[in-house]
Amino acid sequence: YEAIDTGTGTSEYSGKVTLGTTLSGSTYSLTDGGRGGHKTYDLKHGSSGTGTLFTKATDVWGDGTPQNRETAGVDAHYGAAVTWDFYKAELNRNGIAGNGKAAYSRVHYGNAYVNAFWDDSCFCMTYGDGANNLKPLTALDVAGHEMSHGLTAATAKLNYSKESGGLNEGTSDIFGTSVEFFANNASDPGDYLIGEKIDIRGNGTPLRYMDKPSKDGQSADYWSSTVGNKDVHYSSGVANHFFYLLSEGSGAKVINGVSYNSPTSDGSKVTGIGRTKAYKIWYKALSTYMTSTTNYAKARTATLSAASDLYGASSTEYKTVAAAWTAVNVK
Ligand code: ASN
Ligand code: ZN
Ligand code: CA
Predict the structure, then answer these.
(1) Cα 43 to ligand 2 centre (Å)
(2) CA-CA distance, 122 to 205, in Å (whole number)?
(3) Does residue 233 carry a catalytic annotation?
(4) Would you call 223 helix, strand, or coil by DSSP?
(5) Are 61 and 7 in contact (CB under 8 A)?
(6) Which of 52, 84, 149, 207 has the fewest CB atoms within 10 Å, i.e. the most exposed one?
(7) Atom 7 of ligand 1: nearest residue by CA position
(8) What is the pLDDT of residues 64-89, one digit of tens each?
(9) Rounded CA gap, 138 and 215, in Å?
(10) Does the record bear Hydrolase in its keywords (predicted)?
């Protein structure tokens, strides 16, 4: 006997959440039957194989602390579900690959491992437990970021170096942040910061800032001819900054209690079109016009083509795409 169920979980980062689960006989598992059957496994500090599927006699999971090994499973399973739902509701996409196929998640990878990664060869997600095994990398924006590497691999296949690598990383930040806004979760409200929950620096600051990427000390705010020489997590700043400006516009703004102040390279003013239109334009560009070798100049034309398809070539949306790229010095 098998049945799709709805469990409840207490996550570390997103409060109490509902979980897609499966009841087999008298045992529940973190198998999301409503979303392709996405499973979440416990690697128990190993670093290979799938580990052990989370199973239980009751459909109540985790306690919100990292000491309870189910908790990271709750966050990861919830992040996969919200990402799936975002792709479906907002991008009209059936899963990461677009064919309804579920990925799977592995948590408790290695020991105090401070990273998370998508692996396209297993079509799977892996999460470390973070510093001192206390801050697993399972926050919503990180989950959405990592799984969106699978989305990019299934669409534009942007090469992971030089400017195309920055666009690959930027795409993951754009959708990671969009997933966080889409979740509308009171414990982790949407923001234009990446990794604000996982305290990867140990001082409470996020990993990246989309309104002004240089606030991290390394990322580029604007395109220059040498931006492709930076690590892809820093050359992504140009794409992140473009997305922020397109969504929210330049200047000072407070969203969900977070203050932003986004500059432009030339002192121009940009009025945003809202993040929903912005991520639809980015997705259309990624899935229709970008290729493995797309650089920033080509990303400008790809997103203009996408905006023209969606809103028309004389639309405010089209003009704002042009203005936002110009404001990050992609002309
Ligand atoms: N967490 C990193 C990222 O998604 C893993 C990597 O270096 N690719 O960017
Ligand atoms: Zn990434
Ligand atoms: Ca965030």
Answers:
(1) 21
(2) 32
(3) yes
(4) coil
(5) yes
(6) 52
(7) 117
(8) 999 999 999 999 999 999 999 999 99
(9) 23
(10) yes
Q: pLDDT tens digit string along 207-245?
A: 999 999 999 999 999 999 999 999 999 999 999 999 999
- Which atom of ligand 1 approaches the CA of 146 most closely? 4
Q: Is 70 in the pocket of ligand 1 (CB under 6 A)?
A: no
Q: Where are the domains of the chain?
A: 2-138, 162-327
Ligand nearest to the CA of 115: 1
Ligand with the closest atom to the CA of 208: 3
ipTM of the complex: 0.96
Dihedral angle sign, alpha carbons of residues 12, 18, 24, 25: positive
Write out pLDDT tens, residues 181-192: 999 999 999 999
DSSP state of 285: I
Q: Helices 237-248 and 296-311, interaxial angle, to 10°? A: 30
Q: Please check whether residue 210 is in contact with residue 244, taking contact to mean a CB–CB distance below 8 angstroms.
A: yes
Q: What's the pLDDT at 1?
A: 86
Could you give the CA distance from residue 251 to residue 217 in angstroms, rounded to a whole number? Answer: 20
CATH of domain 2-138: 3.10.170.10
245 to each of 51, 263, 269, how far by Cα in Å?
Answer: 42, 9, 9
Of the residues 38, 108, 145, 233, only one is catalytic, namely: 233
What's the CA-to-centroid distance between 82 and ligand 3, angstroms?
A: 14
Query: What is the reported pLDDT for 235?
Result: 99
Q: Which ligand is nearest to the CA of 167?
A: 2
Phi, psi (deg, nearest 5) at residue 52: -115, 125
Assigned fold of 162-327: Neutral Protease; domain 2 (1.10.390)
Residue 115 beta carbon below 6 angstroms from any ligand 1 atom: yes
